[in-house]
Amino acid sequence: MKTCWRSFRGVASLGLMATVLLATAILAPGAQAYSQSYQALAESPVRMTAVAADPTTGIIYAQENEGNAFFKYDPRTNAWTELAEGPLYSGNNGGATYLGGQIYIAYTGNEEKIAVYNIALNSWSTLPNPLEEGTGNITSGNGKIYMAVFRHFVSYDPATNVTTQLGEPPEFVAAGTDDGFESWGGLQFDGSVIYGHQGNGRNGFGVYTFASNSWAELPIVPRVTGFDEEGPVLGSALDPVTDTYLAYGPYAGEILWRYDIESNSWTTSKIPFALAEKVNDGGMAYVSQPGIEGVYMVQGQQGTEFIRYDEKNVTDLSPSMSVTSVVPTKTGGEVTYSIGVKNNGPERASGVNLADTLPAGTTFVSAASSAGSCSGTSTVSCTFDSLAAGAGASVTLKATAAPGPVSNTATVSSEAIDTNSANDHATATVTVAALAATPAPCKVPKLKGKKTKAAKKALKKAHCAPGKVKHVFSGKVKKGRVVKAGKPGKSFAGGTKIKLVVSKGTKPKKGSHKS
């Protein structure tokens, strides 16, 4: 039986998602600058743990804490729906991850099995626990599942059913311990590495590198005074847009820890849960779908509050544009533009886009980028995954243009908040001049015997120019007619002057004279 819950704590519905903005801040601690916001969502029907999101749909899945009930949450409708009951009791919390259309759930108190939920079929199965120890530290990537606890770290390939022992996790000596991961921490896959926090209120933090099959300790999670345990609890997420690892806690606390991967540093903020006792081991998941993007976090075993957290980096992007060459053509010219994009900082910018709507009378030829890719013709769009603070990229764009002045403008944008929109555009202007018309070739016609006037007319018709006229005596050609004018049929450049040799008539005999 499926049941649908909606709960708004008295907040009126606003379109499809009934939410209320709880907190918004622009933070700039040190070199970091970002905007963050929290939204209260429909409360979960029960206390939740083991949270994961389907990246293809944005739907979030979670299991009842200390129970078997299983639910999905649709961010577009702000509604929870009960699904088929899980085969394994969650006990004292669990962790979840998505892989290949299925949700894999590991439990802190179950060293024998993990649960697998098939989204399409709304059905369950179980697998032997690859770690053979209870843990909520689970993530996925490269087609595999990864699990960790204490000094034990494995990968599991569902396609081959093969478990592989991986590099030993750190002791987390910097955090004052020597036993590695607790069962209540978090793991997040980030391409070539996996980040993980120690959990259970402790402060260790590390990174696993696939290339070296080894872990390294990173700066510890900042301690929160006034609590028995001073660090984050079960649950984490990775925001690829801002390139941050997120965790929350401590027990009964309200702190969101944010690790900036590029700056290798932590910042904190307060999560606006309403209840006096805040979070406990629960979970969170990142959703990338436009309009509902953000990190969704349950309150865990402490309560049923449910919150969406969204953050955006704050930075300043600026393009530059110049004309590097104009190659004349018969109809105008081929213009080559050099377009640069610079991230002036202070934070990275993800989803950088350079757009150039070509001017009227201009036709796209090609576009090449130093990083990323370009597409489109009337509007050329070049995208870059991200630009770190201080980094740049360039695009070479070629287009043909009609003769005359041409003004072309490129605009840059990104998923970050831009602090200076005035410099988001760059324009280059050039005057295009077409090639002068190339005259038709001069092909010397047969002119012998023609009168001078007729010969000149024939030369012009053949794209030649009449040259000097030389008069000579000729006993074979009548007076006033052409004796010679180059070799008939021979070609020269258009407009070449052709010398005419014209007869003066028969040469007079010696001693004769005209009367």
Description of the structure:
2% of the residues lie in helices and 49% in strands. It contains one helix and 41 strands. The strands form ten sheets. Strands 2, 3, 24, 25, 26 and 35 form a six-stranded mixed beta sheet that branches. It has a five-stranded antiparallel beta sheet with strand order 1-7-6-5-4, with no helix packed on it. It is rod-shaped, with a radius of gyration of 39 Å.
Keyphrases for this structure?
Neuraminidase, 3 domains, 515 residues, single chain, Trypsin Inhibitor V, Chain A, 1 helix, Immunoglobulin-like, disordered N terminus, mainly beta, rod-shaped
Mean pLDDT: 91
Number of helices: 1
Number of strands: 41
CATH fold annotation of the largest domain:
Neuraminidase
Supply the CATH superfamily name of the largest domain: Kelch-type beta propeller
The first-level CATH class name of the largest domain: Mainly Beta
- Judged by helices, strands and strand pairing, the structural class is mainly beta
Globally, the shape reads: rod-shaped
The domain count comes to 3
The biggest sheet, with number of strands, parallel, antiparallel or mixed sense and barrel status, is:
6 strands, mixed
Rg for CA atoms: 39 Å
Which percent range fits the helix content?
Answer: under 10%
Report the uncertain regions.
1-31
What is the terminal separation in angstroms?
135 Å
